[in-house]
Design a protein that fits this description.
It comes from Struthio camelus australis. One of its GO terms (molecular function) is alpha-1,2-mannosyltransferase activity. There is one protein chain. The protein is an alpha/beta fold and 514 residues long. The protein folds into two domains: 235 residues, no CATH class; 136 residues, no CATH class. 57% of the residues lie in helices and 6% in strands. It contains 25 helices and five strands. It is globular and about 80 Å long. The protein starts with 22 loop residues before the first helix and ends with a strand.
């Protein structure tokens, strides 16, 4: 929208029933693209709009934002009686921080908002006494903003909000004061919700920034009329869609214990195992000490914090994990906000450091797998194709290009730097199509090529290259992008020890011969 480029609008952002707010994309990636656009228009950097800057500029902003996590850990560690430097090392050394928190995921924003919420509810003085809980307005704003970013934020916010209410009760000794603090939260929460609803409604009913700008130029009454036509509340659409089991099944159904047994270990390794182990120990201890619960809660709220293993901090990790496990669609990235309570909890335990070699090896392997190998050739492939299609030699006589992607993740079309209305470049995403369907499409497209300036590229992983050769087409040119690992079409272990191991861990750009 900002740079007037051709993109693929996923179903969540389609105007019929949008499930994602446009506010955060506009504030993050949109802001960086606006800066790039200004640099070009002011003739400061005339060639700044290319695939590299389109990728790196929003990632650079998210990388800067990721230091909110570091600062949050630095502030929270003393309050939760964790070693600040151990917690910071666990955070900075985690491949989750290095890979996920430097990329433009809504889950990344969810993690940053969760960190800010934990800082607000854990406000305390250096002497250990409780600070005056006067940050109700900020808590309300962050909670609602997190809900509009991803409605699952409520699962993460539940324990911090309950803990904040508990601090108010213990420090004020008056239910009336607690209600007053809660009432202060409501106006700011409502104002934030109205802001998100207004922007989303204007954007999605106008379908794009260009039309949105024209709406803004109209009178206030025109804007109100535009909003009244169709009020869009994206979180409600999100919940309506995801509470339907049939819809979730289209994206993949998983056993309810996937987060506990697979995704948690995949992201956090031994730290997740230790947390779950401590969770069972805490549950066992609570069952044996049920008679003492009444006296346990009559004391200061700091008693729980001083307890062995920080049970409240452990609940900050386990409760969201349990709520997210209620849904049948469970992806690892859904858990990345939990890295903050996990590193704080792990840094408060001495036995965590006994696993130091395991933690190091795990995160090195994780960074290599998810940061380099996993679908690692797709972005360099788009860089290469963008240079081919926009080369200076072809600027005066652009040809017709067909780019067919098969057995890769969905290619981000914006990185091809294609202007809206440009019809000489066509992108076909075949996803994980079967051999027969793939060959049929390739054959039809090849036979339809009649112009001299037509170029047909097929992009497939090395493990699928043999399938293309069976389609009865010849190649004019081929380029291998290394490394690239497709977990949907993994190479056989034996092939990794053969002479063509690079091709098995690569992505091919095959230019078909007419």
């Amino acid at each position: 929208d900002v740079l007037n480029l051709q993109v693929y609008y996923p179903w969540e952002f389609r105007s019929s029933s949008p499930c994602r707010t446009v506010v955060f994309p506009l504030m993050t990636s949109g802001f960086t693209y606006w800066v790039i656009k200004c640099l070009q228009q002011l003739d400061i950097w005339s060639s700044c709009i290319n695939s590299y800057t389109l990728l790196v500029s929003p990632r650079l902003l998210f990388t800067i934002f990721s230091f909110i996590l570091d600062y949050s850990v630095y502030l929270l560690a003393p309050f939760w009686e964790a070693d600040p430097w151990k917690a910071l090392i666990l955070l900075a050394g985690s491949y989750v921080t290095l890979v996920f928190y430097t990329r433009t995921f809504t889950n990344t924003l969810e993690g940053l908002l969760f960190a800010l919420l934990m800082v607000l509810v854990s406000s305390g003085r250096s002497d250990g006494s409780l600070a005056e809980p006067t940050k109700s307005h900020l808590i309300g704003i962050i909670t609602v903003a997190g809900f509009f970013n991803r409605p699952t934020f409520l699962a993460f916010a539940l324990m911090p909000l309950l803990y904040w209410m508990g601090l108010n009760i213990n420090s004020q000794k008056s239910i009336k004061t607690v209600i007053n603090h809660f009432l202060k939260l409501i106006p700011y929460a409502c104002f934030t919700a109205i802001f998100f609803i207004t922007v989303d409604t204007l954007y999605f009913t106008s379908v794009g920034l260009d039309n949105l700008y024209s709406v803004k130029k109209n009178s206030l009454f025109d804007i109100i009329a535009q909003i009244n036509q169709k009020i869009i509340v994206t979180p409600l659409n999100f919940l309506r869609y995801n509470l339907n089991p049939h819809n979730l099944a289209q994206h993949g159904s998983h056993p309810r214990i996937t987060h506990f047994l697979v995704n948690g270990i995949m992201l956090f390794g031994i730290l997740h195992v230790l947390a779950i182990s401590n969770g069972f120990k805490m549950l066992k201890k609570c069952i044996y000490q049920l008679p003492q619960v009444k006296s346990y809660y009559r004391g200061s709220s700091r008693i729980l914090v001083h307890s062995e293993g920080n049970p409240i901090l452990l609940l900050f990790y386990l409760v969201p994990l349990a709520f997210l496990s209620l849904f049948s669609h469970q992806e690892p990235r859904f858990l990345i906000p939990l890295i903050l309570p996990l590193v704080l909890f792990s840094a408060s335990q001495n036995r965590t450091m006994k696993w130091k070699p395991v933690i190091i090896i795990f995160n090195v392997l994780g960074a290599l797998l998810f940061g380099c190998l996993h679908q690692g050739g797709l972005i360099p492939c788009l860089f290469h194709l963008e240079q081919v299609m926009h080369s200076p030699e072809l600027s005066n006589h652009p040809g017709h290009y067909v780019l067919l992607f098969a057995h890769t993740y969905m290619p981000p079309r914006s990185l091809l730097n294609i202007k809206k209305g440009d019809t000489h470049i066509e992108v076909i995403d075949m996803a994980g199509s079967e051999e027969e369907t793939l060959c049929q499409t390739v054959g039809q497209r090849t036979n339809n090529f009649t112009c001299n300036d037509c170029h047909f590229f097929v992009i497939v992983p090395g493990t699928v290259r043999a399938t293309i050769t069976k389609c009865g087409v010849s190649f004019k040119n081929e380029t291998l992008i290394f490394p690239h690992l497709s977990m949907e079409d993994p190479p056989q272990i034996s092939s990794l020890f053969s002479e063509n191991w690079r091709s098995q861990l690569g992505l091919y750009i095959l230019q078909l011969d007419r």
